Amino acid sequence: METTGPNAPDLSDYLGLLRRQWWLVVLGCGLGIGAAFAATQVMPKTYESVTSVLVQPAGQDTNVAGGRTKGDINLDTEAQLVASTQIAVGAAELLRAGDPPDVLAKGVSVTVPPNTAVLEITYQAADPARAQAGSHAFAEAYLRNREASAQAGIDAQISALTAKVKQLNQNLAQINSKLSGLSDGSASRPSLESQRSTNQSQLNSLSGKLNDLTTETVSAGKIISDAQLPTTPSKPNKKLNLATGAMLGLLLGLSIAVVRERLDRRVRAAGDVERVARVPVLAELTIASGPHLDEIFQPYAAGGRTFNRLRNEVLASLRTEDRVVVVSGASRGVASTLVAANLAAAMARSGSEVVLLGAHLPDSLVDAAPLARLFGVGATPGLGDVLTGKVPLRAAVQRAPRVPSLRVVTTGGTGSAGGLLQSQALRQALAQLRRRDWYIVIDAPSTASSADAQSLARLADAAILTVELRRTRRPEVVDAVAQLTRVGTPLLGTVVIPRLTPGAETQHGDDEADFNLDDDGPDFDDLRDLDESGDVTRARDVPRARPRATVDDSGDLSAAGINVAGGLRNRTAHPRAKHEPDPDTAVLRRLDNDTLRDMDRAANNGQHTAS
Questions:
Q1: Which residue has the higher pLDDT, 413 or 273?
Q2: CB of 388 within 8 A of CB of 420?
Q3: Which of 198, 252, 276, 468 is the most exposed place for a label (fewest CB within 10 A)?
């Protein structure tokens, strides 16, 4: 199978990123808002006050052709005049402030509302009262300057008209003097009378204009809305700053989330497996599938239905002669053991004879004897004891309670089998089991821990890869797929399960205790249904009696003939209380490294015997 690089992320990937890294986004927004709030508190405050002035025509007001404003006055020009030095000088006189006019002019701004003859004069200052006084002072100085300019224009017109009237009066006096010296029949008299009439008309007209100008009242404009004392600062804008801080914090949080997501190589969802390794996901187990993930799921529970579908897909993918399926994990842990055990149980419930072969040595003492805990069988003897030649294969095969078609071969009580998974002894054991036409499910070590998974996959007919979310890394998945496919074994797909916490890996509920300890059913812990040739013995030859042993105060582990200080013996024949812990499991959980070494030495000295 050829693996390619990952596909481009889609919307679901970004939504998943937000779902996983939401706290970084929220933290970034919070930090941005907090920083904006702190900056707003230390920024200098600026107050604004506005005075509205209605501008009226006065004097020689004209509008520039093509100007933005219509009417007799060009308000854009008037707005520029408000901020001029001349008006600033007048405002400084009104304010009686020590600031120079050019400094005062920096605090004023003028706007012209559309379709109006109004100027809105805004003044900014660090003090509310100063902002109010400054706005009013500039408005008042502008109106005074405008009135003064208009009055000056009128006075100039009056002066010109007065001079013209004086000249006309002089001309008229000269004409009247000439007419008084002429006779009535003089030829010059009609011309002089015409000149007198013209001058008189002009004089009357200019006198009327002069009279109008002298009686005209100058009104350049008025304040229609005086400046008010501001109660809140206009700068800094608290809402704008907080919104800006939130946006910047959001960008910061998203950036950190993206970087953290890129640095985090763990598999987060089933879609990551298909996208990274291009391997189909056969089944996905969710946390809601059962109370504990370290259990054999009931057939009609959510987890049981998931493994029933997985069984159907596996059986449909196998050829008629295919019998061996290896289940390995892409990362360390007991995830593959959980999948292999439930798959074997689901296949056995369909009526097929199934053997579950435990070849996955525990990574730690916490994981010791997982198959024994899951099915309630003896932890020893197991595959390690078979491969080291301590017991025959038939002595290690145990029937699982409540699943008569399922046989279990645990990993055994020795830690020296790790180097024997590639030996001829394992091939012979598999050959014996193949002759019975049984399905064989091998719980293999993870591809991340050793090369044993590759060796076991080479002996199998199909392989399944287990991916543990939030623990398995994407490079581990790619490497596992490459390892399993290079040996030529068909990789059916992957099974994705949630991350197994240490509590979930060792917890047992009441239902599991009832499942493992069934007083009504026969005890198959010591079943030996294989003879030395690998054939099944007849039913009448199978011993029906339970092995009896007792737990004494010495705590010796005599299930495998091994004496361990603080250990235990085989379970007693009489049933335990419902909530009483399994003594074998309890001791296995307490074993330390020295005890395990003692167990290996005892086994190598020939003290390990089949029960």
A1: 273
A2: yes
A3: 198
